[in-house]
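Issue 218. Parser rejects a valid record. Input:
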Amino acid sequence: MEVTKEDIINKVEHAKNGKQSAFKFLLDTFWNTVYGFQLKRVKSEYEAEDISIETFAKAFDKIETFDPNYEFGTWLVAISKNIQIDKSRRKNASLYKNTTNTSEEHIQKIADHAPTPEDKLIKEQNLTELLRYIKQLKTPYQEVINLRYFQEMSYNEIATQVNEPLSNVKVRLLRARKLLAEIITENS
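Output the parser choked on:
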């Protein structure tokens, strides 16, 4: 099924109202666009993934500023490009600074999902199978899944543990759950 501009505008409006399913839809719909754009620019999967996560975190924090007269994908790519330029400048200057300016109020709008396929596996005590699936994820995704579901840390505790902004942790966990759900579905 093709996603129309009206579908996107509708989901953006839902996201502005804090609907978690709208954030997930937007992430799923535009992840490949942003990630592919960055992969061509930086030529590193890890760096492209990191910039993509920051892009969605920043976009979700600033979703209220999105003008529906423009294309949402173009807006995301522009944010992504700016983040990559900032990172390159900092790298060249050997400085480190977080690029995501977030407020606690905006971060709270990205809520947890209802039970997901991995939650169901945990409840059914199929931990061995779940761990096998988790090991198929890249290390940063394995880490946030482990901290959230096995060590039962809060988002704030995870952010402190991995030394990342809270919004980045939320997007990384959202992405990790999506990838894990795809692995579980493929193997079911």
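Fixed in the parser; the record now loads. The chain has a mean pLDDT of 83.
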